[in-house]
Design goal:
By secondary structure, this protein is of the alpha/beta class. It has 13 helices and 6 strands. It folds into 2 domains: about 190 residues, Rossmann fold, CATH 3.40.50; about 90 residues, Helicase, Ruva Protein, domain 3 (Orthogonal Bundle). The protein has a 6-stranded mixed β-sheet, sandwiched between helices. Strand 4, helix 4 and strand 5 form a beta-alpha-beta unit. Helix 1 runs parallel beside helix 2 and helix 8 packs across helix 12. One of its GO terms (biological process) is microtubule severing.
Amino acid sequence: MHVGPTSVSWDDIAGLEEAKGLLEEAVVYPVLMPEYFQGIRRPWKGVLLYGPPGTGKTMLAKAVASECTTTFFNISPATLTSKWRGDSEKLIRVLFEMARHYSPSTIFIDEIDSLCGQRGDSSEHEASRRAKGTLLAQMDGVGVDPKKIVMVLGATNHPWTIDEAMRRRLEKRIYIPLPDLDDRMELFRINTKSLSLSPDVDFVHLSKMLEGRHYSCADITNLVRDAAMMTMRRLMEEMDKSELKRRAAEISKLVAEQPITMKDFLGAVKNVPSSVNAEQIKKFESWKKEFETNP
């Protein structure tokens, strides 16, 4: 569990302008303008970020906390579960007590589906049911005291598995899609800021090459990492390993200064496949039509 401010800002996240705008309205502005967000304008009890893996959901949550300067509680389901009877419920109650004490605060629960799966699921055991019930009860208490703002942000790659009662409490649901053409170009720029590039590198062409191939933000980051390793791979093919070990410091500096070429990026496209497929996207789009709350 991470507690405290975050250093991630909107500028660190490529694209996703619609999602950023929706999060500002749902989370940031209520903290900055609490007098306005009262009555029918009350802040949402919870916000769900959902979409394919690697699309930036965790980064968005951290940026939200940074933008509205709230205390950020980064929670994984594993930190809230225990094999000992009653421990999970205590952990959840303490979490919300801390969040209220250090308010305004944001509780971010990644992979919330693993904590709040459908009731009656054959894999659900008694401890999970009790923990889920406690979490739902604590979320019902969010917003009771307008002076102690606590926002619950959940993220999932499997929104269709979330329990209906939890889904109702995650009132605002925001789809985080795969990056579009402009987003992909920005991702290439962000990920290569510290690298030396050959003049022939064309991010527009590379981004167009990925159209329709379902590359996520994480996939593109991995692609750039693979391309960045090409200079070392070429050297290792040409140099004896014993010499490489003997002159490691010198060679490291030399290789780091060598520019990455367009050929390196094209090779990386072949090496690094997408982690998302068309069927997954269809499933997300279908769930979005049924349950998303945005205009």
